[in-house]
Structures are given as C-alpha cells and as structure tokens.
Amino acid sequence: MRFKAAWSAVLVAAAVGTMSPANACFTIIVGKNVSADGNIIVGHNEDNDGRVMSNQYWVPPAVHKTGEMLQYEPNTAQIPQVEKTLGFWWQQTLHPDGYAFSDGFYNEAGVLITSNNCNLTIEKDEKVKDGGIGYGIRRLLAERATSARDGVKIAIDLVTKYGYRHQGRTYTIADSKEAWQLALLKGGRYLARRVGDNEMTVMSNAFSLGQVDLKDKENVIASPDLVQHAIEKGTYKPAKAGDYSDFNFREAYQLRARIDRPANTERVRAVLYRLTGKDMVQPYNYPESMSIKPERKMSVADVRGLLRQNNPWYTNKSGWKHEMFNETSNSGTFDSAVYVLTKNPLISYSWRTSGRPDSQFSYPQFMLGKPADIQSYLTPEQATKAQFRSVPNDFDYSPDRTVFTFINHQNFLDWDNLAFRKFADKQRVFEAQAEQDFAIAYERALQLSTVSKEKTVDHMHQFNVESFDKVLGATASEVAQNYKATIAIGASKLSTNDKGNVTVTLFSSKDIDAEGIDPKQTFFGDGYPDGSLNRNLQLTNPTSVEFKDVNGDGKKDAILSFPVKAAVAQTVPGVTTQLYLWTKIEGEPVIAMDTVKIEK
Known about the structure:
12 helices, 26% helix
C-alpha cells in the first residue's frame, strides 16, 4: 500500500487511566490581579498514552425526563439526572480503554473544569457506593454548575454520596471570579482551596495543596475528618496536640514515590525557575509549589510559553526531540489550551494547540461560539456513547479526520531537530497574525454581546471556523513541504501476536536516495507513547536491508525488514493505523508513513 499524500486533522487532548501512575497533565492558574488583562487564566496540557483521539463539541442545553438515570463508566453508580442542563463546550479525550479523567469542559454559565492525576495516595482501600463516581464529576459539573464555587459544592456532594473511584486527583474549577483547586481522594475525602487573586499556582501530577489554613472557611473547604483520618493512618502527627496549623495535606496523603517522581518534580522545577529565577531541585519542599507571587503580570502569551517550554536540564539521548515525560510539553501531550475567563462568560476564549504545544501552531477559539464541524468526526451523542463503549472504527486512520494532520506534523518534527528549532519562528509569525485577527473578532464580539446573544454566537462561530481552517491549512502546508519520503508496508494486515518480520520499502526519488540510509538510525512503528510515556525507546532497528529497484524507475529502493511485534506494540486490534518509518540518509532526517490494519 503506497503512502497516502492526502492529509487533514485535529488532535487531541490527553487522558488518564484510572489506576495508571504514568498518565498525567500540567496546569497553571493565574489569579485575576496578576494577569495582564485582569482575567483569570488557566493553562492546561493534557498528557496521555496510546491512541488518543480528540474532538471538540458543543452540547446544547436540554430538558430531561423525570426519572432519567445516568451511568458513565460500566459498573459505576447510577445518578439521577436533573430536569434542565446547561449547554457546554466539550473537549473529548477518546481512548480505546475509555478514559474517565481527561476531558475538558466549559459551560454557558462560565465554569471551566479540568483536572490533574495525583495518583498514589494512602487511600487505596476506601469504600465507594455502587461503584462510585469518576467521569461523572466533570460531566455533571459541566451540565449543572452555575459558578466555580457552586461546582466545588456539587462535586463534594457527589463524592460524599457515591464515593470517588480514583486514588487521587486535583480538579481545577474556575470562572471569571474565582479559581479553585479541589483535591479528591478515593472514598470521598476532599480538600478545596481558592487560588488567591494575587497569586498563581503550578501543578503537575502530585498534589500541589500542602499546608493550608483550615480555619479560612471562605477560601478552604475540607472533609470534616480529613486531619483526624491522617492521624489515625499514622501519616500526620501534630507538633502540638490539638493544634493542626502544621497539617500538610500533600505530605499526609500523597506517597513520596509520587511527590518525588522526576516527571513531576522536573516539570514544576522548570516552570518555577522560569518564573522566579530560583532553581528548586525539590520544588514541593518550597511554598512556591502551591502559591507564586509573580514579579510581573502574566499574559496569555506568557502562559502559552510556559506550557510549551522545554526542560533546560533534560538531555535527549535517543534522537527524538520528545523521548520521555520530564518536560512540560512532552511525549504524552495530546492537547494544550490557555483559557481566558472574561467577565462576560459568553465571550471567554482559549488559545489551543491540537497536540504538543511546542510542536504546533496555537490558535484562538471562543468556547461558546461552538467548534467548526471538522473539529470532530462524531456527533455529541455518538461521542458520549463511545466514551466508554467505543468500537475500533472510532480510531481508524482517515485523511478526513483532521486530528491526523496535527499528529503527523508533530511526529515529523519530533525526528527532525533542525526543523523543530526553525518551527519556533514560524509559530511566532503565525500566532502574531492570529492575535491581530482575534483582537478584531473579540472587539466585535464585545460589541454584539450588548445587543444580541444570538448574533454574538453566530459571529464567534464564524471566527472559530476561520481560525481552525487557518491552523489546519498552515499545518498541512508544513507537512506537505517537509514530508517528501514514500514507503509501502509489505502487508495489508499485521497481527499483535505475529512473531515474524514485515518488510517496509522506502522508495528513492528526486528528493530521496534510499541507498544512503543509515540502518542504525532507522526505526519503524507506531507514533504514540507507551504507558510510561516513553516515546520511541522500545523501537528496533531493521533486521536486514536490501537495495533493489522495486518500482522500475531506475533508482534502487531500500527494502527493510522489521520485527512485527515491536512495530505494532502500541497499536489497537481492529484499527487501521498509521505506522511510521524514521531514518536518516547521509545524516539528514527522513520520515514516512503508511497504513495497515491491525489484527489480534
């Protein structure tokens, strides 16, 4: 099967398997008094492993029948639906395993919901009722919360009634007035803290909430027995009996293996260094790990830069730009967004990348303006059904699924370090123009919002369509200019149980001399990270290389043989997937792709 030249796409958000310690995210919250425009800003990278697909949807408000019950993940509690639900923008993380803790939401009341995995806690055996609640937290908040504080209350009520299924997670629940971090523990204990207007906070995948003022009932909400339970578990002993002012939530409930995990500490360390100039080798030992007082006010562009920055202490060892998980923009980042929560929730907006933010163009979107049709390939109803009950076709490679344009683009850049460095300049040019276009569109939206909500939404939707068309076109152009090689996999189907080899032919052309290939710098396989978020470290070199004019054009092509098992290690049975050849010819990076059906 020949390499397919047609490209198109949108990429994804990230996700987190319920008990996997690897999957993760990164979040930055900027209080309104320390943001350049006076709006609360939330930046979020969604990190995950495997064949993640991301779509953007608008789910309209609805009226529901009396007695309707909701159940999301199989074997979880059934929850009564309310009579009326709010409309909301939904960023879906669709994964074959049905991820419960990765989707992002912004509803028409102006409430944003996202989260970070804070797995590995002391709460492993706490009981839940009828399977408890997981995914329902974020989905129900999107449907019901009228403010950030209301969202915190709803979430607490739900976990108190049904019990929380995950070992530990921190939700960011924000609106234009307040931003809250809500830490939930398996079973249903919780700690919520409002991020101060004069501070910002940075978190990866260990609890950022440490020592908080439990007496501040306006800004801190805690389970009644949160401290006593830690005392009984032996993870907290007050220095002075009856005085709990030294209680540290993170130290009492998070395992050190999670707190000290390099993937967590290194990302926080790098961002804090950029913000403060202090190198905090163990960042969770510093107050700044929960509350930063920035020296200057933070702009949207500043937050974008933090989300896409690379770790200055990390040394690449493999040849790929992203090989592991120790950087803010990393091998598992499938979606990135900077949300600006304006005083009028109707015109709040985000700057998004459909993939790793250091490898993609960022583009503006009005959340309540509804996404372009091509930002999804399922309807909201189909997507809701597929979240935990997907079928292989939901993950097939297809040129008209825009997600793949972005995935292929970042997989090209990942192997070509020179192109990666040059891309930063292209980002600046593209985003500078996008900022000019958005400023005009925002001013128009602001004017229309005083006259007609319907006209405002129509205007914002048209802008969203045009904005996405521009980023899709620019990304497709990058792929077309740089993606010159053609390969053919010597089989239409490959099995995950196959212990043999598969041939891959790299064709020579006016741009490619396949005879110059370096076998030691040649790899073949899936382009998605594994469960530890290692990008490509498990791929193997070809077992044999033969040069032959396969297509009769007078040029010798390279016929490479690879172990099937390594090539399809991260693939999903039943899915038509893209597999990549990464190689170097006379020192120059070359990448090509072909598709194949995966069988068991």
